[in-house]
Amino acid sequence: MLCGSSLGTVDEHAAAQLSREHLAIRCAATAIEARAPSLDQLQELGANLAARVRFEERCLFALIEEDLGSDQLSRLATAVLEAEEAL
User: Fold this and answer.
1) Among the four 17, 27, 36, 51, which has the fewest Cβ within 10 Å?
2) Position 26 pLDDT exceeds 80
3) First and final CA of the chain: distance in angstroms?
4) Phi, psi (deg, nearest 5) at residue 10
């Protein structure tokens, strides 16, 4: 289901997947910081990070590009560049 907003539409399933995966990665990173991780834990975190990047590159960014017009994408690109320069 898509939800509309002034920022465009939101694919609720993609948003839920994004939230779940980010939470899982944060939890794993916190656990690794708290104690010496096993090789299995590190490999699982690496696999989760790789899956996250693939999802964003193949699905999420495509949804964003489809939803936003060229004017909005240009403004977004400008805002990102300005934020990076401010660092």
Assistant:
1) 36
2) yes
3) 37
4) -125, 125
Residues, the chain, total? 87
User: pLDDT digit string (tens) for 47-74?
Assistant: 989 988 998 888 888 888 888 888 888 9
Burial 66-77 (b: 16+ CB within 10 A, else e): eebeeeeeeeee
Which pLDDT does position 47 carry in this prediction?
Answer: 92
In sequence order, the β-bridge partners of residue 5 are 8
| DSSP per-residue string spanning 19-74 | HHHHHHHHHHHHHHHHSPPPHHHHHHHHHHHHHHHHHIIIIIHHHHHHHS-HHHHH
